[in-house]
Amino acid sequence: MSLADLQQLEAQAVIGTYARNPVEFVRGEGTRLWDDAGNEYLDFLAGISVVQIGHCHPELVKAIAQQAGRLMHVGNLFYTEPGIRLAQRLSERGLGGKAFLCNSGAEAVECALKLARRNRAGGDFVVMEGGFHGRTMGALSATPQEAKQAPFAPLVPGFKTVARDDPAAFETAVDGNTAAVLLEPIQGESGIHPLSEETLRAARAACDRHGALLIFDEIQCGMGRTGDLWAWQGADVRPDAMTVAKGLGGGLPIGACLTSPAYAGVLQRGDHGSTFAGGPVIAAGANVVLDVVDDPDFLTAVTRKGEQLLAGLAGLGLHTRGRGLMLAFRCDDGPDLARRLLLDHRLVVNATGPDTIRLLPPLTVSDDEIDTAVERIGAAL
């Protein structure tokens, strides 16, 4: 089927919520993608921080295929090893409590919101300007962006918004009726904005004063993306709960809500559930991703590669922000530049707004591929 045929079929059959680029990808390997005409691209988006260990990593493909050949699904009325083993590993390497596995980042956020409300009935939530937590009704209510919220009002009540990086705001926003403060340590969808350590510490202190949960959304910035396994480790501000997704599956749909020991028993039997959560095939794949990423030498390399990419962009005179391999730079027309990089220079990136290009390459990207990406950006500019 040609690209034109696909576009016509999409217009007939697919609800039109996506603005797709005019490229059909048919194959991937490592940091490379190929379209239906055989053109090779360098992928510096990784499916929006999903393809953490590269396209079609051989160990990931092997684990998925082997598990699919044994057992694909039975549901959570029975025991299967891969999901329970994954939950144990995430709990130990996360916050030391327990894990709820689900199918996406938005679902992980929904679980975290329910955890906080179960802990403090009727409590409110404090979220931050520029935050993005998902598109389900609860997660959308926690996403204070008018363009995304307005068409679906009224939303879930009980959400208050504080300004980005205003540590003093938590002193008045958080009180005895606050169920949780929900933040991204590095805001992703709004254009890669790391929150300051002062802001994260202020949120932690306010939650401690009033007995509220501090929840970090690490759906985009977690799983080694920053050079630490979790972004909160770089700031040394420990949350009470954390949401994880995207890169955990390496390309398969998964999410998880992780708790500290103090909140591991808040949700009771029957409080929450999911048909597909923790399924054997998905969990088998996620265990392989964790095998690769949760390694000190691997994470050190991510930090070094991030510094190399940052230096290359700075050499082009670009104003950059971010940490590790989660970077962005300012430009005059982000959407136009992203399109030209894709179509003219075979570099896959993403514009998060009118003046920002976001770079999220697979963590397995090579030094030469980083240099090539910088050259292509320079050529496009």
Into which percent range does the helicity of residues fall? 25-40%
User: What's the total count of β strands?
Assistant: 17
Low-confidence stretches: none
CATH superfamily of the largest domain: Type I PLP-dependent aspartate aminotransferase-like (Major domain)
Strand pairing plus helix content: what structural class?
A: alpha/beta
Distance between the termini: 34 Å
Keyword list:
381 residues, alpha/beta, Aspartate Aminotransferase, domain 1, Aspartate Aminotransferase, domain 2, 14 helices, 17 strands, globular
In short:
The protein has helices at 3-13, 46-49, 58-70, 81-93, 105-119, 137-141, 146-149, 169-173, 197-210, 231-235, 280-293, 296-315, 334-345, 367-380; strands at residues 25-29, 32-35, 40-43, 99-102, 124-128, 159-162, 178-183, 186-187, 193-194, 213-217, 241-244, 255-259, 320-323, 326-330, 347-348, 350-353, 356-359.
Show the helix and strand layout.
Layout: H1 3-13, E1 25-29, E2 32-35, E3 40-43, H2 46-49, H3 58-70, H4 81-93, E4 99-102, H5 105-119, E5 124-128, H6 137-141, H7 146-149, E6 159-162, H8 169-173, E7 178-183, E8 186-187, E9 193-194, H9 197-210, E10 213-217, H10 231-235, E11 241-244, E12 255-259, H11 280-293, H12 296-315, E13 320-323, E14 326-330, H13 334-345, E15 347-348, E16 350-353, E17 356-359, H14 367-380
Parallel strand pairs: 3-15, 5-6, 5-7, 7-10, 10-11
Antiparallel strand pairs: 1-2, 2-3, 4-12, 8-9, 11-12, 13-14, 14-17, 16-17
